[in-house]
Amino acid sequence: MFHVKLPGQDAIARQADERLVTRRIALPRRRVEHPLRQVTKRVVIALLVLVATALIVYADRGGYTDNSDQSMDLLDCFYYATVTLSTTGYGDITPVSDGARLTNIFLITPLRVLFLIILVGTTLEVLTERTREEWRLNRWRATLREHTVVIGFGTKGRSAIETVCSTGLKKEQVVVVDPSSKVIEAATSYGFAGVLGDATRSDVLLRAEVQKARQIIIATQRDDTAVLVALTARQLNRKAKIVAAVREEENAPLLKQSGADAVITSASAAGRLLGLSVLSPSAGMVMEDLIHQGSGLDIVERPVIKAEVGKGVRETDDLVVSVVRGHRVLGYDDPAVGKLQLMDRLITIVRVTPHTQVAPDMRPLPQD
């Protein structure tokens, strides 16, 4: 819907747009035609049926009689076809010959049934569309558990969720929250459910079922917005893993205090990767490979298997870079690692090919 904005009315228009789009949940749409196109197509088919019926009657017009003037022209044929297909049947034009009556039995009657099916089907579909959407929405809410909520579907949000999905997360388990209707349309086109609204508001996050989420990814455009979202999300869900991105490194401690388990400084991370690529292009390529999940080298977290218990870090088949033990993350060369224990978790570098899929455990890392 487009509005002509006069000077000084931008804020009012934005508030009006927010009121119009608030409380919307967009589920991924099935590949169906636009409702207007469906109705237009059915109207065209109904008109074709009407024309076909009129031409059939006109071809056998000698077998019909018109009580008004005893003759049948093309207009009379269209009139008869109209009242016949609509089951009105005034009786002023009737088939009198055997051929005309057989034509009514074997041709006109099936066309009448087809005409009614088209009209009734269109009406029922229009009437049941809202009910079907409500049923889908209620079913979606009832079955959604342990899902991932993505706040912001810009470059960072899309990249983050693509990485998570490459490890086996189903698209049905992802809910995108964004204040832009165009962004939500893009998210649903990817196959994700979308909630349109301001994620700093608890009612918007509740529509995304954030209280039942397992992971929350905050990828907003502004750091202050990320802080408010983290505060609201943590208040609604005490157990979820919250990962957030900030632009400025000085805002990272504030975001952690707001409830984020992990904070990524996007500007600093990009700058470090640029600097590394300048100093060592090969090292930059390796880091780029590690960042892109699902191909080449990947960093994954996995539990220690029984065969590895009691062994040293270098005795495992995988390239281990860190060991997660209790509330600590120990480097591979930390003397405190010693022998691997059954409750340890390993952070390893593995090679992924197109024929293999690595699905690391998605449980949150313990935090100090």
Order of strands across the main sheet: 1-6-5-4-7-8-9
Helical content (DSSP H or I, runs of 4+): 40-55%
Uncertain stretches = 1-23, 358-368
How many beta-strand elements?
13
Strand content: 15-25%
Helices and strands, in order, run as HEHEHEHEHEHEHEHEHEHHEEEE
**Structural class of the secondary elements?**
alpha/beta
Q: Rough shape?
A: elongated
Query: What kind of sheet is the major sheet?
Result: 7 strands, mixed
Number of helices: 11
Mean model confidence by pLDDT: 79
Radius of gyration: 33 Å
The first-to-last residue Cα distance is 50 Å
Structure, briefly:
The chain is an alpha/beta fold. Helices cover 45% and strands 17% of the residues.
Description:
The protein has helices spanning 10-21, 35-59, 74-85, 98-143, 155-165, 181-189, 202-207, 223-236, 252-257, 266-279, 281-291; strands at 24-26, 64-66, 93-95, 148-151, 174-178, 193-196, 215-218, 241-246, 262-265, 296-303, 319-325, 328-331, 345-352. Strands 1-6-5-4-7-8-9 form a seven-stranded mixed β-sheet, sandwiched between helices. Strands 10-13-11-12 form a four-stranded antiparallel β-sheet, with helices on one face. It has a two-stranded antiparallel ribbon with strand order 2-3. By secondary structure, the chain is of the alpha/beta class. 45% of the residues lie in helices and 17% in strands. Helix 2 packs across helix 3, helix 2 (35-59) runs antiparallel to helix 4 (98-143) and helix 10 runs antiparallel to helix 11 (281-291). Helix 6 (181-189) links the parallel strand 5 and strand 6. The longest helix is centred in the first third of the chain and has 46 residues, at 98-143. The radius of gyration is 33 Å and the shape is elongated. It has eleven helices and 13 strands.
